[in-house]
Amino acid sequence: MIDLNNHKLELEYPCSWSYKLIVLETVNIKQTVKEVVKKEHTVIESRSSKKGKFKSYNLDLIVHNEEERKEYHKMLGDHKDIKMVL
Length: 86
Known about the structure:
Blueprint: E1 15-24, H1 29-36, E2 41-48, E3 54-63, H2 66-78, E4 82-85
Antiparallel strand pairs: 1-3, 1-4, 2-3
């Protein structure tokens, strides 16, 4: 088995990056993302949970460096309406 903790992700920036967002089905995802991401992006519904309580969305945007990519991940994860960011 490969230990991925010993390998650094090597990307060529700027690049397109996708975040998977999981929220309650009642959340206005476009408004929620707009509060965090102040630049051009797309949000596309991905899946719904079996009972329909949660929905997942793909958020795609251009990131210019590793710090920006990680900062968006942190800001999205810290938002009260977002349950999980992958």
